[in-house]
Each structure stands twice: as structure tokens, then as C-alpha cells.
Amino acid sequence: MKVIKFGGSSLASAAQLEKVFQIVKADKDRRFVVVSAPGKRHEDDTKVTDALIKYYKAYIAEKNVADIQNWIIDRYRGIIDDLSLGQGILERISKSIIDLASLPIEGNAFLYDTFLAAGEDNNAKLIAEYFKKNGLPARYIHPQEAGLFVTSEPGKARTLPSSYDKLEELRNCDEVLVIPGFFGVTTEGQICTFSRGGSDITGSIIAAGVKADLYENFTDVDGIFAAHPGVVKKPHSISELTYKEMRELAYAGFSVLHDEALIPAYRGKIPLVIKNTNNPDHPGTKIVLKHTGATIPVVGIAGDDDFVSINISKYLMNREVGFGRKVLQILEELNIRWEHIPTGIDDMSIVLRARELTPIKEQEIISQLTRHLEVDEVEIERDLSIIMIVGENMKSHIGVMAKAAEAFSKHHINLEMISQGSSEVSVMFVIKTEQEKAAVRALYDSFFNS
Ligand code: ASP
């Protein structure tokens, strides 16, 4: 039994839907189809979800909504006409889009989520209709009926554990179930979405709920590449990754799959495969709990920018009990998340995402560190990037660091900091952003091209 999820670019046009239908039909185990809203047909196009945001903004500002309503309805109409699905489904979708503009605005914490969810909800109805018309017994099912219940946290819902028992009952359905991604329903019956890109999360929850043998996530690339294709020319697609490796790569900028989507499938011990709707014969990337055979030490190289570092020095820091706690407490009180803390004997660096450090918070940190903690020096270092080499098998290989250091040295890349967690799944290098691309290329050449 398989759960199959299609992203927006796989559902952007009738031609894409035809591919989707062939993929679902080709394997009778593909019983649960989770869908996104129609995505972009070309570079300059607008995603239906983004159009719904525009619609919501116009509605709450009490502006004329007719143009944006029509744009959204026309988007579905184009697909319905090209697939010759008839008037019934178009009327159903039009009504649902128009009705959004009669929902209460005042005191409605879930209004934004309800607008956004309409993108996937209507697409699921359309797709179920299309499958049925082509002889595949299929049924649209709303998350409420399916049993996907979530916390009341608009825009960042989390699944309620009680959902899983109810979802398991879906195994007994005979039809192919078409489920809209991206949202669940609160116990009070309100629509509540996951964060953007959250249809991946729905797929993972359904896979865990129905105890699927496989969660297939279809997108528009041949799986996950060993480095970003915008940085490295034609990087190879990774055939197998562990959940831990995927998490590390996603953290450092690999965005093929929503990072929260890994959790339900991981806990449910369900293997996941990322495949390409436009090239379904390509095996894609399988994400597994443990590698199935021998693998190379480094499976992927990621880089991400927009980091800053708070560099603190204080003579005899190592002897001062509680120093680290006091520093972190300052950050906690300012509600700042930190990412890494490389240390020396008398110094400590706190690496953060730049967006965490507003000018006011920065001043406050500097003032508290100098006045209360009496540090000798504090400096904010900006324009930093992190580079990660990732691979569970690094642990049992000697010379991985030597190889990385040699690549950096050969390309004159200056390392600001290095950090490796005890699980040894990754090594992180902090460098200046201006050298990020060169660093990723240097590492890719060294680990994969040599
Ligand atoms: N349509 C939503 C978004 O654009 C969710 C998704 O596509 O996964 O964020």
C-alpha cells in the first residue's frame, strides 16, 4: 500500500495531470493520493496559493475581489476544459472560491488558513473527478472526514496524535482516495494549515496513519542532488539517503522536501522516495532508516547563507562556572534561537540566522555581555555562510576532513569555524558568504569528481 503525493508543478496543467493519472494507474498499490494546489506553469506564473493570499488581502481590506476571484476560478477552468470534465465540477469549485468572500473577518483567527487551504481542497476535488472520468475508482476526501486533526495554531498546525488511529481506518476504503494536502481540521472544526509547502507533511502523516509500505513524493526533479544544481553543474542525484542525512541537508538549504515532513514517516518507519513526475522511470532518491549497503562517506554537500556570529572572549572563561548558561539566558530572554556554538578555551561563538538579530536585540546583547558578564571582547561577525558535508558513513572513514581541508586550501577558502556533532553525520564549516559557492564546488569536485 503506497501513499503518493504530487507537488504543485506536477499539477499545474492538464498535461501534467495526464502524467499524474498514468503514474497512479500504473501501480494498484497507489491507493492514497495527496495533492498540492496548482503550481506555476512557467517561471513567471503565479501559484494558486499565492493568488489566494492576494484574494485574502483584498477581502480583508474591503477592496474589490472580483478580478482575483476570476483569476483563480479561471485557473481551474483552464484545466477542467482541457480535460473535458464538464460544468458540474467547475460550478462546485467556483462556488467554493466565491463563498470565501462571505466568511466573517472579525475574530476569525482561521480565515487566512481557510483561504489558503482552498487551493489544495479544490484541486483534490478536480483530480478525483478526472480519475473517475477515466475509469479509475477514486474519491475526494476532506481531511475532516479522513480524520486529520491538528492543533489550533494557524499557519503552523501540528498533528494531534489521536489522528493516527482514525487515519488507519482509511486502509479499508476500496477506492483511490484523493486527499488535499497542506491542512487539517482543529477539534472545533476550523481549517488550519501547516507552514508553506506543507502538503509534503500531509503525505507523510497519511503514510504513517495508514501504515503504508512506501511514501512516494513526486516533484519535478530526479530526486535529491548531491549539491545544489544552481551551484554545481549537473550534480548527480543521490540514490539513497538516511532520514538523518536528509534532515542535515534540508537544514543547510536543500529544499526539495519540507523538513517537518520527515518526522511522521520517520517515526512510522516508512521509507520515502522522491521521484520526478516528468521522468517517472528514474529511480529518484530513497530515504530510509538505515543504508541498505555500503555507501560513500559523504553523500551530499549543502550551503546556506545569512548567518551571523556573536564572538565573545573572556580571559579564563573555562574556569567560570555558569558562564555559558548566563550567555544563553540573555538570548533566551530576547527570544533568540541559536544554531551552533563552537568554542575555544577563552572564547565562544554563537552562530545564528541573521534574521534573529534585530539592531535593538544586538545592542541589548552587547550591553548585557559587557556590563553583566564583563567579557573582554564581543564582536558581531556578519555575512557568513555555513557549508555542510553530510554522510552517516563518515564515522567509519579516516581522512574525510583531510580531503575537505585540502579542497579548501587548494581554492584559497578561509575557514572561520568548524563544528562536528557527536553523531558525526555532518561536519559544518563557517565561511564568508562571498566564498560559499566556490567552497561547495571545491568540495563537490573533491568528493565526487575525483
Ligand atoms: N500550496 C501550499 C504552498 O504553496 C502547500 C504546498 O504546495 O505544499 O505553500
Automatic annotation (TrEMBL):
EC number(s) recorded for this UniProt protein: 2.7.2.4
Which Gene Ontology BP terms does the record give?
diaminopimelate biosynthetic process; homoserine biosynthetic process; lysine biosynthetic process via diaminopimelate; threonine biosynthetic process
Q: Which residues form the ACT domain?
A: 389-450
Q: What is this protein called?
A: Aspartokinase
Would the keyword tRNA processing turn up in this protein's UniProt record?
A: no
Q: In which pathway does it act?
A: Amino-acid biosynthesis; L-lysine biosynthesis via DAP pathway; (S)-tetrahydrodipicolinate from L-aspartate: step 1/4; Amino-acid biosynthesis; L-threonine biosynthesis; L-threonine from L-aspartate: step 1/5; Amino-acid biosynthesis; L-methionine biosynthesis via de novo pathway; L-homoserine from L-aspartate: step 1/3
Q: Which reaction does it catalyse?
A: L-aspartate + ATP = 4-phospho-L-aspartate + ADP
Q: Does the keyword ATP-binding apply?
A: yes
| Keywords in alphabetical order | Amino-acid biosynthesis, ATP-binding, Diaminopimelate biosynthesis, Kinase, Lysine biosynthesis, Nucleotide-binding, Transferase
Entry GO MF terms: aspartate kinase activity; ATP binding
